[in-house]
């Protein structure tokens, strides 16, 4: 729970992450989302892990890193997460 595999992370379609109302109109999906290559995804994932926004769990999955947790802790507290 709260983890994703490296392969799952790399296979996420970024254009599907745009708000639902934007999905009906392909013109509203940012061009960068449409053209994000696998190499760019791998580099971004590597950078997020290196900078501790994400972490690797003991099971080899990817989870929320300490840096992201610290940035989001007030939100988590307000939502009783």
Q: Explain this structure to me?
A:
With 81 residues, this protein is mainly α. It has one domain (6-78). Helices cover 48% and strands 7% of the residues. It has helices at 6-10, 20-23, 31-34, 38-50, 66-78, and strands at 54-56, 62-64. A two-stranded antiparallel sheet has the order 1-2. Strand 1 and strand 2 form a beta hairpin. The radius of gyration is 15 Å and the shape is globular. The mean pLDDT is 80.
Count of alpha/pi helices: 5
Strand order of the largest sheet: 1-2
Strand content: 5-15%
Total DSSP E strands: 2
Mean pLDDT level: 80
Oligomer: single chain
Helix fraction, binned, reads: 40-55%
Q: Structural class from helices and strands?
A: mainly alpha
Total domains, how many? 1
Spans of 5+ residues with little confidence (pLDDT < 50)? Answer: none
Task: Spell out the helices and strands N to C.
Answer: HHHHEEH
Span between termini: 13 Å
The 3D shape can be described as globular
Major beta-sheet overview = 2 strands, antiparallel
Radius of gyration: 15 Å
A few lines on this structure:
The protein is mainly alpha-helical and 81 residues long. Helices cover 48% and strands 7% of the residues.
List keywords for this structure.
81 residues, nucleus, ubl conjugation pathway, mainly alpha, 7% strand, globular
């Amino acid at each position: 729970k709260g983890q994703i595999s490296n392969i799952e992370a790399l296979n996420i379609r970024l254009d599907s992450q745009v708000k639902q109302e934007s999905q009906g109109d392909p013109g509203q999906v940012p061009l960068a989302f449409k053209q994000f290559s696998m190499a760019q995804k791998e580099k971004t994932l590597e950078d997020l892990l290196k900078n501790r926004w994400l972490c690797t769990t003991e099971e080899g999955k990817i989870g929320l890193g300490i840096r992201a947790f610290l940035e989001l802790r007030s939100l988590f507290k307000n939502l009783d997460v």
